[in-house]
Design goal:
The chain is α/β, with parallel strands linked by helices. Helix content is about 45%, strand content about 15%. The chain folds into three domains: about 220 residues, 3-Layer(aba) Sandwich (Rossmann fold); about 80 residues, Tyrosyl-Transfer RNA Synthetase, CATH 1.10.240; about 80 residues, Structural Genomics Hypothetical 15.5 Kd Protein In mrcA-pckA Intergenic Region, Chain A. The chain has a six-stranded mixed β-sheet with strand order 1-6-5-2-3-4, sandwiched between helices. Strands 9-15-14-11-12 form a five-stranded mixed β-sheet.
């Protein structure tokens, strides 16, 4: 059901003020339960990459606010479900990862939750892996005890499944079972930890309600589901992707400087929304910042960039990113926090075509992308616009600081350093 009205419990009131309630199975009942005392809630995260991205951060902030309101959050890492693959929003099956890759992703991603959630307090966050119970299920027993509570009719009605079939895209039998397995996670967490609420993005509504229904059938329990709106960019695309790829949360996959720049360069119309979701500023202060116009609105974007970066990477990283941006854009310097790559000295001795260097520095997705940027006069080496994609960048371009400064447009920069001889 869609939600209307103002809840009274602190957590629900906070996320309602910040525009983060989209659907709830029974908002009044959930509000009443949260008003009575601490509840336990979970959100699941698949392990398909070595890092989560900004789209996942919306859900992590939900868990963070839940914990701040005195409840216990569970971050459920999908060591088991990643082996199946969530078909939601996909036209084809995800690549199947082996156990070693899933474990490596899990070990890296765990650190993100440990930075953003308190794992030691009285309502310390639990970081669990559904591979613990899904891996131990006997398939025939699972079909008999759990599968019998699902109808093919209802599974076919799920948006994630129906949309794939409507587009005449193949859906594997493995993916078809994803909703069943995710529903079972909710029952397991209820049994093990008294978890009564599952949260997620609005694209997970069907999967969440499957879990609520399964718990009612198997345990006679009245559990709840709550979703937040999917975060979209100003042009209607799912947030978390840019022209150069995903906005990763891991610093070694997206530097704190580039992360800072992502927020600094957000669309004017989204400043207020992003401040509400990704910072902990009071809503009245956010309203005042978002109401600014012209140059003053840029100051609000800097507040967003500083606070979002500090939350994920720490205060020092945020200060360094802001100082680097100031040096690059105001003072014309290289700045100390720019992304940096090392190129073999022999390559620069021979000369590297400018378009190839843009790709190697991560400023272009491909050679054709780099050539297009150069043709549009959007690339520069040491502040000089590159006129020809084949212009050779050599050791002679290395500056006094030992680097070559590359730029794509006014907002994306990188340093190239030759390797030691």
């Amino acid at each position: 059901m869609s939600v209307a009205g103002a809840p009274s419990s602190p957590f629900l009131r906070t996320i309602a003020e910040r525009g983060l309630i989209h659907q709830c199975t029974d908002l009044a009942a959930l509000d009443e339960a949260m008003g009575r005392g601490p509840q336990t809630a979970y959100i699941g995260f698949d392990l398909t990459a070595p890092s989560l991205h900004v789209g996942n951060l919306v859900n992590i902030m939900q868990l963070r606010r839940l914990q701040q309101a005195g409840h216990r959050p569970i971050a459920l890492l999908g060591g088991g479900t990643t082996r199946i693959g969530d078909p939601s929003g996909k036209d084809e099956m995800r690549p199947v990862l082996d156990a070693a890759a899933i474990q490596a992703n899990r070990d890296r991603i765990r650190g993100t939750f440990e930075r953003l959630l308190d794992v030691d307090g009285p309502n310390g966050a639990l970081i669990l892996d559904n591979g613990e119970w899904l891996g131990a299920l006997g398939y025939i027993d699972f079909l008999r005890d759990v599968g019998r509570h699902f109808t093919v009719n209802r599974l076919l009605a799920l948006e994630s499944i129906r949309s794939r079939l409507d587009r005449e895209q193949a859906l594997s039998f493995l993916e078809f079972n994803y909703a069943v397995v995710q529903a079972y996670d909710f029952v397991e967490l209820f049994d093990r930890h008294g978890c009564t609420l599952q949260m997620g993005g609005s694209d997970q509504w069907g999967n969440i309600t499957m879990g609520v229904d399964l718990a009612r059938r198997m345990r006679g329990a009245e559990l709840q589901g709550l979703t937040c709106p999917l975060l979209l960019t100003a042009d209607g695309k799912k947030m978390g992707k840019t022209e150069s790829g995903a906005v990763w949360l891991a610093a070694d996959m997206l530097s704190p400087y580039d992360y800072w720049q992502y927020w600094r360069n957000c669309d004017d119309a989204q400043v207020g929304q992003l401040l509400r979701i990704f910072t902990e500023r009071p809503t009245a202060e956010i309203d005042a910042l978002a109401a600014r116009e012209g140059r003053a609105l840029n100051d609000a974007k800097i507040v967003l960039a500083n606070e979002a970066t500090a939350l994920l990477h720490g205060e020092a990283a945020a200060r360094d990113a802001a100082a680097t941006a100031s040096a690059v854009f105001a003072g014309g310097g290289a700045g100390g926090g720019l992304p940096e790559i090392e190129i073999p000295r022999a390559d620069l001795e021979a000369g590297v075509p400018a378009f190839q260097l843009l790709v190697r520095a991560g400023l272009a997705e491909s050679g054709s992308d780099a050539r297009r940027v150069i043709a549009e006069r959007g690339a520069a080496v040491n502040g000089v616009v590159v006129a020809d994609a084949m212009t050779a960048v050599t050791l002679e371009d290395v500056g006094a600081d030992g680097t070559i400064r590359l730029a794509r447009g006014k907002k994306r920069h990188a340093l190239v350093r030759p390797s030691p001889a």
